[in-house]
Amino acid sequence: MSRILYSGTKNASSWAFRAWLALKEQGIEFEECVVDIREPQRFGNLARIAEFSPPGAVPVFVDGNAIIYDSLAIMEYANDIGDGSLLPKDMKLRAQTRSLIAWQHSGLSNICPRLSFESSFYPDRRAMTSDEVADAKRLFDVFESALQRNGGPFLFGALSLADLTLVPTLIRIMSHRPDSDAWPLTQTWHSLLLSRNTVQEWMQEAMSLPPVLLDGYRG
Ligand SMILES: N[C@@H](CCC(=O)N[C@@H](CS)C(=O)NCC(=O)O)C(=O)O
């Protein structure tokens, strides 16, 4: 059976990271084809993706004759063809998990575009602005109360797609060294996620790459 994930440059593609994580966490075997999404080669490379996947973006997962695009669809598919453990069985908990995933998928907050995933790997990261600090606090409050309510160690008890989809966001925020002492459960959850073999594997490769410098980072 041929399964291929068209992924992206590891220190630039947070969406590919999410899909890749869900597939790996479900133990699904696949060939990985890393698409270089750095400019200027980005445009030609994504045009080739558009020849078989309408959005012309990564990630795309090809499973035999099925083309599955968009990280969220790939994450859900990974859960479907895996053991299904990445979404809670309880319907209310499942819906709450999906709410958080949907929130991340539809933007989450202004913090993601301002603190790009690429910037997590810059050797000299700037301080967070007061708006970014306020956004991070709002998110930490959400994480802390989910961890408290559901008893941890992950947001909804067992590891779920919600934890995985938030990994790149946590990396963006935490790499900018916010004061997170008031959210101890969130700190522990962050460390737990970062210590997973899957996350380590992606991050080690991401950290070995030359930083992808984007305009506007320093305002
Ligand atoms: N909603 C999509 C977003 C994918 C996305 O924006 N991917 C970036 C790389 S991380 C890309 O390929 N962008 C090219 C484009 O959108 O033209 C998903 O979740 O997969």
TrEMBL record:
<dbReference type="InterPro" id="IPR036282">
    <property type="entry name" value="Glutathione-S-Trfase_C_sf"/>
</dbReference>
<dbReference type="InterPro" id="IPR010987">
    <property type="entry name" value="Glutathione-S-Trfase_C-like"/>
</dbReference>
<dbReference type="InterPro" id="IPR004045">
    <property type="entry name" value="Glutathione_S-Trfase_N"/>
</dbReference>
<feature type="domain" description="GST C-terminal">
    <location>
        <begin position="90"/>
        <end position="214"/>
    </location>
</feature>
<dbReference type="Pfam" id="PF13410">
    <property type="entry name" value="GST_C_2"/>
</dbReference>
<protein>
    <submittedName>
        <fullName>Glutathione S-transferase family protein</fullName>
    </submittedName>
</protein>
<dbReference type="InterPro" id="IPR040079">
    <property type="entry name" value="Glutathione_S-Trfase"/>
</dbReference>
<dbReference type="Pfam" id="PF13409">
    <property type="entry name" value="GST_N_2"/>
</dbReference>
<feature type="domain" description="GST N-terminal">
    <location>
        <begin position="3"/>
        <end position="86"/>
    </location>
</feature>
<dbReference type="InterPro" id="IPR036249">
    <property type="entry name" value="Thioredoxin-like_sf"/>
</dbReference>
